[in-house]
Write a structure and sequence with these properties.
This protein has 151 residues and is mainly α. Helix content is 59%, strand content 8%.
């Protein structure tokens, strides 16, 4: 990640886009432009996916990563992203029940709230899935905490 953020920082500086060295809010117009560019790249990726254009799918995904990394530069969060991603991953992994009993408690919780779902065994893992395919959070899910990274 550090290598990618370094490349987009170089691009932004060369292009004259002001990037921060520590967390802060960028000029509004710069942030809005970057966000619009991300939306454009995602739309191009979707179109490439629909037309099954392998090269354009890869191009769209690479461009999306690149532009998103530029947005990270604008906010001055380069040195925080690795830790943030690690924490988000750990939190996301806590969505999966650690035991059959925890999975049953999770299914029961959602069914008691009128959410149609079921448990799926994925090897050692138990996954609780809503009927439309969305992964649901275990009763022992732990939300991510990122506050200390920006204070």
């Amino acid at each position: 990640m550090e290598k990618l953020l370094s490349k987009t920082r170089e691009f932004n500086k060369t292009a004259g886009v002001p990037v921060k060295d520590s967390f802060g809010y960028p000029k509004e117009s710069n942030a809005y432009l970057q966000i619009e560019l991300i939306k454009e790249e995602l739309q191009e990726t979707l179109e490439a996916f629909k037309s099954k254009d392998d090269v354009e799918v890869l191009d769209g995904l690479a461009d999306t990563f690149y532009v998103l990394s530029g947005l990270v530069n604008l906010f001055g969060l380069d040195d925080k992203m690795e830790e943030a991603i690690d924490r988000v991953h750990k939190s996301n992994m806590s969505k999966f029940p650690k035991s059959y009993e925890e999975a049953i408690r999770t299914v029961d919780k959602y069914k008691n709230n009128n959410v149609s779902c079921h448990m799926v065994n994925r090897g050692e893992a138990k996954v609780v899935v809503r009927d439309d395919g969305k992964i649901l959070k275990s009763v022992n899910y732990k939300p991510v905490y990122l506050g200390d990274l920006v204070k």
